[in-house]
Amino acid sequence: MSATIFQWDELAKYKREGRFLDGYPPDLRTFYSPRDDLHGLLKNLLASAQHSIVLNMFGYDDEELDDIIRHKLTSEHVYVQMSLDKTQSGGAHEHQLLAKWNNHAFGNSIAIGTSNVKHAISHLKILIVDGVYTVKGSTNWSLSGEQQQDNELTLSRNAVIAAETRAVLDLNHDWMLKQMAASRKKASDKKPPSIVRARRTPKPKAA
Predict the structure, then answer these.
(1) Are 61 and 139 in contact (CB under 8 A)?
(2) 28, 154 Cβ separation under 8 angstroms
(3) Long-range CB contacts for residues 165-169, cutoff 8 Å, separation at least 24
(4) What are the Cα distances from residue 176, in Å, to 87, 119, 161?
(5) Which of 22, 37, 145, 157 fits as disulfide partner to 140, beta carbons 3.0 to 4.6 Å?
(6) Tell me: the pLDDT tens digits for 78-123?
């Protein structure tokens, strides 16, 4: 799956009406579930990634999108950074998806945690592709969130917005990594010390 070309001027095909209103801002496109094809739009955008995929996602349950991202990492060497909410990532299907990832492999960083204020949920649903395209809105990455629930998704191609958003996502990611390190240390400290038995020195045989 080589990178496809993301055609900004053809995004109207993901709208139910097949067009945007006249006078739409040139760097913004907005879509709504269940009216529009949000799943198809996200697939197209992810498939176009050439350098980086950075996301901070509350609900992460879309197997097809996950497959595209893992392929980008392993076959096309696209950098992947994922920050996921701790309360949501513990679900059965989410756990199955994350089990396929190798966080120790080169080029990807996955962090699971909470907000840095009173351990509240990390409720963002944001994706940044190649430092240019930014997806925001209320849409969780699940088929119900993309196709059934009332949700909004706004896509920007403004690199300044992408840079500002990336700084926020990097801070969140750093905080989650620190949470994970603290949890591992706490678990390690609770382990009882291993008992090392002294080896007995055999007595010399009598002459």
Answers:
(1) no
(2) yes
(3) 165/126, 165/128, 165/134, 165/136, 166/54, 166/128, 166/131, 169/54, 169/55, 169/56, 169/81, 169/83, 169/124, 169/126, 169/128
(4) 13, 10, 23
(5) 145
(6) 999 999 998 877 777 777 777 887 777 788 899 999 998 888 999 9
Query: pTM for this structure?
Result: 0.85
Superfamily of domain 27-183: Endonuclease Chain A (3.30.870.10)
* Rounded Cα–Cα distance for residues 15 and 31 (Å): 7
The values of phi and psi at residue 8, to 5°, are -60, -40
User: What pLDDT, on the 0 to 100 scale, is given for residue 190?
Assistant: 72
Distance CA 54, CA 39 (A): 18
Q: What is the largest CA-CA distance in the chain?
A: 107
Strand-pair partners of 137: 153
Q: CA nearest 151: which of 17, 12, 11, 32?
A: 32
Domain ranges of the chain: 27-183
3-state secondary structure of 75: helix
Structural tokens at position 81: 């950074």
The answer to whether 88 touches 60, Cβ cutoff 8 Å, is yes
Q: What is the secondary structure of 36-50 as a DSSP string?
A: S-HHHHHHHHHHT-S
**Number of C-alpha atoms within 13 angstroms, CB side, residue 175?**
20
Residue 20: Cβ-neighbour burial (10 angstroms; 0-12, 13-18, 19+)? middle
